[in-house]
């Protein structure tokens, strides 16, 4: 019975792509065959299409002028500053630049230790 449930789930997960005809021909045919045989998925697909028709009748509205700022402020308050807060130095400088600086400093230290009169790497 679990296999039959999986077939229903995967079929229903592909409803959007099936409706938009963006599936490969073989998968589209599999879904069409399944919909002819399965009353459960036929009902679910009919409900899916009805929902899409209802949503397509809604008028699109633009967001209020300061909507983005309000969302950012709300996220900042709820996250205690973890998002959109002050950024640390490492957040502003790319990691590759920091890695190159660390590599250069490491090479300088090795060079100084190797070629200094009191260096610990020479014998």
Helix content: 55-70%
**SSE ordering:** HHHHHHH
- Pick out the low-confidence regions: none
Give the count of helical stretches.
7
Query: What integer is the average pLDDT?
Result: 83
* Biggest beta sheet summary: none
Describe, in plain words, how this protein is organized in 3D.
This protein has 123 residues and is mainly α. Among the domains are: 2-56, no CATH class; 93-123. The chain contains seven helices and no strands. α3 (25-37) packs across α4. The radius of gyration is 30 Å and the shape is elongated. The termini are far apart. The model has no long low-confidence stretch (mean pLDDT 83).
What's the layout of helices and strands?
Blueprint (H helix, E strand, L loop, with lengths): L1 H12 L1 H5 L5 H13 L1 H18 L10 H12 L10 H4 L2 H21 L8
Helix pairs in contact: 3-4
Pick out its properties:
7 helices, 123 residues, mainly alpha
Compact description:
This protein has 123 residues and is mostly helical.
